[in-house]
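note to self — DONT lose this again. spent like an hour looking for the file last time. sequence + predicted structure for the chain T wanted, 508 res
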Amino acid sequence: MPSGEEDLLLPGAGRTEMMDLDERDEQGKNVAHVQEQYTGGDINGEDRRSRTMTETENAVADPVVGQIPYRVYKRRWFGLIQLVLLNIVVSWDWLSFSAVSTTSAQYFDVSASAVNWLSTSFLFSFCAVSPLVIWTLNKGGPKPAIIAASLLILTGNWIRYAGTRASTTHSFGVVMFGQILIGLAQPFVLSAPTRYSDLWFTSRGRVSATALASLANPFGGALGQLIDPFWATEPSSIPNMVLYISIISSLATLPSFFIPSVPPTPPCASAAQPKTPLRTTARLILPSPSFWVLFLPFAIYVGLFNALSSLLNQILAPYAFSETAAGIAGALLILVGLLASAIISPLIDRTKSFLLAIKLFVPLIAISYLAFLFAPPTRTVVAPYIILSLLGASSFALVPIALEYLVEITHPVSPEISSTICWSGGQLLGAVFILVSDALREGEEGEPPGNMRRALVFMALVAGVVVPLPLCLGVFGRGVRSRRLEVDKAAAAGGGGVGDLDVDREAG
């Protein structure tokens, strides 16, 4: 193979290795399923079978007739980048009005609580469409889900813009409808990363791939927190802010229709292994204590993060913080978290220390929520900025690790099922936490008026209560198996073909 065809699995994940052609005797066991999954049907208007055989022959001459080697392809990055773009814009859309809640309330002539419903309805929409998301990802794979999300994002953004321009009354109801449509789009791209990484990547790159696509979602929120206050400096600027966001979102959706659907050949043995049928999945997941011990803290911490992100401006405003200062605080919460995850995810890919990392980051998250309770009353930016940075680092590092570990312990259940269930739980709790926090807001008689100290106490208590659950994993004599890794290791040890060739000879 020419050296130019080699590629990295992921930054820091190490060079891929050529598979020994003499060690393929066990590979034929999976051929029938691999051919059905990876060579049947049509992909982008071409016959998948002929395309697969052509690329296989171009890559390396396989002396074993009918066998398909395990390979990774450069084109996997196109779909991953598109997932990143869509997760960025869908989260930016979510927090469009939260970042400038006071200005938005003035423009639409509604209360701050009504503006909060723009975020809350978004989260409830996620839960409502989740069953359809699971079915789409399970039956069609990531590409149909990505296209569905793109269409909803396009439609929702321009309906929101129309609502901001509607006559002189600025139709808040039309804006809410557009927001709900975008909320329906979010689960299609937020639940897809684990399915995509399982389909296109090996064990040496899955955590990093999942981290890159999943954490692009809060990165979009950071952009909204940071940029929107500069675009909406006064109530009359709200329509222009929505217009700019709509243009960016529209451009981000266009490549969705051109990404590849599935790789011509599977990347590794676990990707080629048949997944549990959708109708029998519940019987495997629901009785599993390990699943619930991970699901509950994941959903609660995602819910708390969503509530904090949505209400951050309202939490800080009573203590004389400006919308710009609150936006910077929200951006630090997310950007520092992204940096931490960028460092930690490749390490987990190499070491597979899922359980150790989970037991480290969960207590740090709880401590951060407790510490933030005392930050706003300082009336300086130092304490909020430092504590939110720590909270972001621990939260973002945990997300891809927990998602991938859930896939490991529930294998051969298809990855999108555990992912969608966890994200749905987080969005549902996020909506509930926003409503509870809003109800706990002090009135004008508070000191200072309108402060949300009781809401912060509530968040700190909930964050602390869930800490013991993940700490119990692997103790009391009950081991936790990484079943997907076991499949890949067994295939490698038995010459099963985990060659991880990185080949892509397509034009362009």
